[in-house]
Amino acid sequence: MLGIMSEFTVATERLRGIRPAVSMFGSARIGEGHPYYAKTCDIARRLSDAGFAVISGGGPGLMEAANRGAFAGRSPAIGLNILLPAEQLSNTYQDVSVNFRYFFARKLMFVRFASAYVVLPGGFGTLDELSECLTLVQTGKSRKIPIILSGAAFWSGLLDWMRERLVGEGMIAPGDMDLVQVIEEPEAVVEAIFAFYEGRGFQPTLAERQKMLNL
């Protein structure tokens, strides 16, 4: 418990004042030269140049691509690295790096500071992060923010299954599918985030801040 509290305190202090930010998730196993890597770099660079800090898991693969794109842009590249038996080394494209031993504290930082989530193809960890984001927004424990999937061919089977099984069998409401959107073009990702906040600004409202205190 003390270890989790310590990580939470240190990370909160290190990340204070970095908003607006976008948390990007994706596979640790996709190397440079893969189309997913290039797309992730492109999205992150555009977000960074548009004024968004970019938060990734701080490791290799598409996490590296997210940090690399942001590092080349105008806004901070942030890595929240988790210490694991494998795939735990931080990438070198980070303006701010925070190391975690506990998934709980790390996952909270992804949520607490994000104005949007961009989810690229990935494995169990990526699916876990996507599911957590959707659950928090669906249940009202977190403010509603854009949840964007990029890589339509990769995500189509999962989304079809959600509609057929989760909606079809009454596990979620039909409107819950509107919490997520699929956007292919990197420039359209940035435009969608700005469109969501048009007329209200990126700062959380008082009611949204109260929700975030209860995470």
Report on the structure:
It is a single chain. This protein is an alpha/beta fold and 215 residues long. It has a single domain, classed as Rossmann fold (3-Layer(aba) Sandwich). Helices cover 47% and strands 14% of the residues. It has a 7-stranded parallel beta sheet, with helices on both faces. Helix 1 packs parallel to helix 4, helix 2 packs parallel to helix 3 (62-71) and helix 2 packs parallel to helix 7. The longest helix has 16 residues, at 152-167. The protein is globular and about 45 Å long. The mean pLDDT is 90.
Quick summary of this structure?
The chain is an alpha/beta fold and 215 residues long. Helices cover 47% and strands 14% of the residues. It is built from eight helices and seven strands.
Q: Strand order, biggest sheet?
A: 4-3-2-1-5-6-7
Number of domains: 1
Q: At the third CATH level, what is the topology name?
A: Rossmann fold
Estimate percent helicity.
40-55%
Q: Characterize the biggest β-sheet.
A: 7 strands, parallel
CATH architecture: 3-Layer(aba) Sandwich
* Share in β-strands: 5-15%
What is the CATH class? Answer: Alpha Beta
| Rg over alpha carbons | 16 Å
Mean pLDDT: 90
> How far from one another are the termini?
16 Å
Structural class: alpha/beta
Order of helices and strands: HEHEHEEHEHEHEHH
| Shape field | globular
Low-confidence stretches: none
For the secondary structure, the number of strands is 7
Count helical runs.
8
